[in-house]
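Email to the structure team, subject: 3-methyladenine DNA glycosylase AlkD model.

Hi all, the expression group asked for a predicted structure before they design truncation constructs. Nothing fancy, just the tokens so they can compare against earlier work. One-line instruction: predict 3-methyladenine DNA glycosylase AlkD, return tokens.
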Amino acid sequence: MKKDIILYINDLEEKMVAAANPENAAPMQQYMRNQFPFLGIKTPERRDLVREFVRTNGLPDVDNLEKCVDMLWKMPAREFQYVAIELLGKQAKKLPEEAIVWLERWVTSRSWWDSVDVLVGVIGIYFEKYPHQIAAINERWITSGNIWLQRCTLIFQLRYKQKTNQDLLFENIRKLASSKEFFIQKAIGWSLRQYARVAPVAVQTFVDTHTLAPLSRREALKHL
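Reply from the structure team: attached below.
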């Protein structure tokens, strides 16, 4: 990226505001339970806009990535966070080890499932690159009391398939199984359902031998 990061973000903001569609904004905001205001840019149009913007302006340098995402994260309209995660995802394999601090900050700021469940994909890539970080970060997050960090401990392995650390997954579920939080119960079921694609017997046995919330159990066994 040749452009100064502030000019880069200002240019991106200008293009997004120009693409706003007030007719779409209200239903999009309602779908997210009025957690955030929206510009009304639907996903296909937003991705096209970002693709064209990156083609013209390039991606932020890794050295500027934290500042870039921070600036977008502070903007009120929700689409700016979506774009931030999209730019972050394009650089996910290049993140430095200290980026886990940034990722934790974004998970716990302006938090809702729509941002956390995409950020966790970047977190999964990060842990593949820095596996020695998993134990300490997992322990900190699962004991944090923050439901979004806890949700991340349950679902960061979703795309790992056969490389899933079964012991870690099952232990995290045991620790959170009594949670009354919808987003934790749902994540438990989601993680088990996904892991059942490669280890159906292990998942069935786990569900049969542990007390899970009805939602978690139902989701876990959906394809078994």
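The chain is about 65% helix and 0% strand. The chain has two domains: 1-94, 99-223. Ping us if the truncation boundaries need rechecking.
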